Amino acid sequence: MEEDSLLYQIKAIDKQIIRLFLLEENICGNFSIPTPTQFQIMEYILKHPNDSIYQKDLEDVLKLRRATVSGVLKTMEKNHLIKRVIGKQDARVKEIIMEEHVKNLCMHHLTKVMRIEKLLMQNISKQEQLEFMRILKKMQENINEFLKERTKENAKVN
């Protein structure tokens, strides 16, 4: 892959961000680090304290398949990060609740995210940041549209 290709650069910055997280972790203390997806789930739950959160909500927000989210939640439950309880309004679904002791871990992580994001955005104007976000969202829309079309094509074949 060529160094000036978009996918190469996205993968390169992804690796650099992971290194920054690991460096931050060494500075801030040592504990078992949940996966990025687990942190996304915990952050979502933390940011919606008055809402009932269900697996379907996480599938939609994270843009992940049901089986993927189910596996992540199963691991999180096994590691005592969350618990699943019968839904208040619908007994057929389970509400996802973050364990109380995990909230500090999540807040610690959010602090790291803000520090790293600040580092990434230094020397980039607000206008450039907004344009970059607009372009990223457009790329996501392109992928989503392609996936929808591919799904339709596969449904016709089957």
Structure description:
The chain is mainly alpha-helical and 158 residues long. It is built from six helices and two strands; from the N terminus they run H-H-H-H-E-E-H-H. It has helices at residues 6-28, 36-47, 55-62, 66-78, 102-121, 126-157, and strands at 82-86, 94-98. Strands 1-2 form a two-stranded antiparallel sheet. Strand 1 (82-86) and strand 2 (94-98) form a beta hairpin. The longest helix has 32 residues, at 126-157. The radius of gyration is 19 Å and the shape is globular.
Average pLDDT rating: 86
| Quaternary structure type | single chain
Q: State the distance separating the first and last CA atoms.
A: 34 Å
SS summary, helix count: 6
- How much β-strand is present in the residues? 5-15%
Parts with pLDDT < 50 across at least 5 consecutive residues? 27-31
